[in-house]
Write a structure and sequence with these properties.
By secondary structure, the chain is an all-alpha fold. 58% of the residues lie in helices and 0% in strands. The longest helix has 19 residues.
Length: 185
């Protein structure tokens, strides 16, 4: 999480922060990052090179931000965590439809953000969203690995503990005052 906050420096564009985080910290291949941004692999590779060049040329320090600097990076951090979860929830590469390692890491990181910045708008909402989706992971596919529609899923296979953790987070996020500047694309 410290590295994600570090990569999400406000001097970089949002796209550069996210791509750099996904490549450098999470270790996703450029192909998967390009797919997340709906661009070609070559385009994404060029963007990553430009982001690294900007860091070097502008002398952007590679350091964990102070706590008071974290809120200005929060939107990008939450979006990066969501993109990690999204890649795990519907894996773009490989045989498995779901990459549990990415889903679980994104949930772990979101829990850390909620713990670190409990007043952070959107952190609880993101954690709730991921928990509710991940709670259905065992029922999302059949024995052949094919997707099962929500209305056809065996709800006995849903993870009740995750749902029970998520519901109070949903309620808390509904009561939050969201800054008008906080907008996820």
């Amino acid at each position: 999480l410290r590295l994600i906050f570090t990569c999400c420096h406000p001097a970089l564009s949002e796209e550069a922060r996210l791509a750099l985080t996904l490549r450098t910290v999470v270790g996703l291949p450029t192909t998967e990052i390009a797919r997340a941004f709906l661009v070609s692999e070559q385009t994404m590779a060029q963007r990553l090179v430009r982001a690294k060049k900007k860091i070097r040329d502008a002398g952007i320090p590679y350091r964990v931000p102070e706590r008071n600097e974290m809120p200005e990076r929060l939107e990008a951090v939450l979006l990066a965590i969501y993109l990690v979860f999204n890649e795990g929830y519907k894996a773009g590469d490989g045989e498995a439809l779901v990459r549990l390692d990415l889903c679980e890491e994104a949930i772990r990181l979101a829990r850390l953000v909620v713990e670190l910045l409990p007043e952070a708008p959107g952190a609880r909402a993101l954690l709730a969203l991921m928990l509710l989706h991940h709670a259905r992971r065992l029922a999302r596919t059949d024995s052949g690995g094919d997707l099962v529609a929500l209305d056809e899923q065996d709800r006995e296979r849903w993870d009740r503990a995750m749902i029970d953790e998520a519901l109070p987070l949903v309620e808390a996020s509904l009561r939050e005052r969201w800054p008008e500047t906080l907008q996820f694309h």
